[in-house]
Amino acid sequence: MEARLAKLGIHSTRDLCEHYPMRYEDRSKVYSAGAVPFDTPVSVRGTLISVSQKQTRRRNITLITAGVTDGLDTLSLVWFNHGNYLLARLRKLEDRNVTVYGSVTMDRAGYPVMIGAEILEDPDTDEVIVPVYNLTDGIGQNQMRSFVRKALEYEREFYHETLPLSVREEYGLEGLWEAVRGMHYPDSPEGFLRARDRLAFEELFVLQLALVQRKQRQKLPGRGISFRVPDDFFTEFRSLFPFPLTEGQKRSVMEIVADMRKPDCMNRLLQGDVGSGKTLTALAGMLLCCKNGMQAAIMAPTEILAEQHYLSFRSMLGDKADVFRPALLTGSLKASERKKTLEDVESGAVQLVIGTHALIADKVRFHRLGLVVVDEQHRFGVRQRTALYDKARDASPLGPRPDLLLMTATPIPRTLTNAVYGDLDISVIDTMPPGRQPVRTHWKKPEERPRVYRALKSLIAQGQQAYVVCPLIEESEAITSRAATELCEELKRDFFPEYPIALLHGQQSADEKERIMTSFRKGDVKILVSTSVIEVGVDVANATCMIIESADRFGLSQLHQLRGRVGRGSQQSYCILISEGVTEDSRKRLEIMTRTNNGFEISEEDLRLRGPGELSGVRQSGLSDFKAADIFRDGALLQKAKELARSIIEADPGLDSPDWQQIKRFVAAKSAEIEATTN
Ligand code: ADP
Ligand code: MG
Fold first, then answer.
1. Percent of the chain with pLDDT strictly greater than 70
2. 3-state secondary structure string across 513-555
């Protein structure tokens, strides 16, 4: 039994107490056998009759059947593969009054049947609101209820209040024990909410205390590098581009530079919608680092993107590329090139190191790494994100630590940013480069394809380029790639025989992908048919149209990222979503896409449709691991917890006051957990 409980993460009686119900059954509504609604859990009261057991001839399934009757109508009950225990229990109850609980469906002959019903022997004394727990094989609902009940009795005297009365009063929170009990046996819906709020606050508060403490520890003065900023640095930096920086870029550059000057380590997240110009902002920090005689590295999630950064750095740097030498390091370099690059990185002959995960490999030795930039950080695992930083630290344990800049285009609702990235400082680029016109997005039905293609033809005739994105097919990259190949052939043969079309998918070699991207960038290829491999960061300003096939298969954030590939130049761009839009949910998503281009708005809608935990970036942050809290619903609570945590740690960094003696060990455990996932 212990092993079974362990599968649910339950290792102690305390864990049982904190195995909160996933939902509750309201048994106050009781039906009689003749008038039971379908497909919703209901209680049905009546006399239990006709208990019998059968063995199906095929496949050896044991079937127990019975009925519950009100004298006029009878509802059939069926259980599959239950042991003798259930049969014996039913036999004992035969001809007695019972209440059964479950969902009623229609059987093949059109009669209502309740499958796998729960039997309540003595409904009059049972609670009205009954907890329903998450279970695992070999543990029944009633068994779990009785485990939890016993655990609560046993643990009661060991539950020590964690929040001082003053805090509880200020935030209107009930006592810890009351809340734990209230989660399992709420006396009313309001009682449940009170209990949940108290426990949610506690979880968020413990997390925030751990994060704020951690942030303080990392700010140990003198562990980082104080970069010197030459007088002409900004003038020189601005002279690299033909355009002025946007307000958001200026502010972010200033924040980054200010961090880098300080002797503390920078730990900053740069957030900006797709196309807002994060790359160039990061380049400011990288150049400052090089100016100080140190190396800077940027890690991107895909080879295509790393290559693109390399090319754009070279073109931005112009003749300065001889002074700040950039090098590209990916897994697909030829052995000889790779050897040379590794040597140059180690000797310090190159200053800007651009690459993929390949940068983390043991063989790579940096020469005084001063700044680590991680692009599209949500694409990396938690460990990978800081791996480069850790590498530099481990290479010289006593030396100064590099600064860390994470970048992301995955917008998180503004109210949550601070809380989700609790231990990071945040810069936001909230302004788009000027001259950009919002992408016009249309939703078209599959039968409208010929018209869409005709319109595309006229765009191409004007010298523009387009992406056609193929649907995501379940989990298999191979099948998705095959579908892309077929679509590409069809477009060549039936619609665009006169134009060069190329295909890009995950099954191609890195060399091949690179070749294709180069010819698309140069404008030789007019239409790029691809799987969602182009989702991240690809930047071709002349591509003004994107057609997304079976758009309903993509999530909102993904559609937004994909669409970010167009609308990068000054010309009007279009995004065509092709879909039947069969489900309610997919229709909503498509409508949102046609309505707005704003990443923050889209992420908020996404949240509403999909719920917490699904939003990328959040799951990895360890924030969705709560038992009672839910950061999306609890935004306000989170903010309070964060403010309180800040003021407490400021006054009492070690949580030494007697007020915090109980909560202290939970904070320590949380810290250990955070360390384990981030190191
Ligand atoms: P993202 O934030 O999505 O990574 P990029 O850094 O790829 O965006 O920038 C998108 C495009 O915008 C690039 O072609 C870049 O040269 C251009 N760009 C960046 N900043 C500006 C600016 N201030 N004015 C005009 N164009 C800019
Ligand atoms: Mg980018």
1. 89
2. HHHHHHHHHHCCCCEEEECHHHHCCCCCCCEEEEEECCHHHCC
CB contact at 8 A, 412 and 617: yes
- 560 CB under 6 A from ligand 1? no
Q: Would you tell me how many other CB atoms lie within 10 Å of the CB of residue 570?
A: 13
Contact 467, 564 (CB under 8 A): no
Judge whether residue 658 has pLDDT over 70: yes
Cα gap 549→546, rounded to integer Å: 10
This prediction's pTM: 0.65
The finding on whether 246 has its CB within 6 A of some atom of ligand 1 is yes
**CB of 531 closer than 6 angstroms to any ligand 1 atom:** no
What is the DSSP code string of 117-175?
A: -EEES-GGGS-SEEEE----TT--HHHHHHHHHHHHHHHGGG----S-HHHHHHHT---
Taking a C-beta distance cutoff of 8 angstroms, is the pair 484, 528 a contact? Answer: no
The CA 493 to ligand 1 mean position distance, Å, reads: 36
622 close to ligand 1 (CB < 6 Angstrom): no
Q: Positive or negative CA dihedral for 655, 657, 660, 662?
A: positive
Which pLDDT tens digit goes with each residue over 497-545? Answer: 999 999 988 778 878 888 898 899 999 999 999 987 665 567 788 999 9
- Report whether 374 contacts 299 (CB < 8 A): yes
Q: Which of 613, 612, 591 is nearest to 602 (CA)?
A: 591
> What gap in Å lies between CA 287 and CA 265, rounded to an integer?
17
As residues whose CB is below 5 A from the ion ligand 2, the structure lists: 537
Residue 614 has pLDDT above 60, yes or no: no
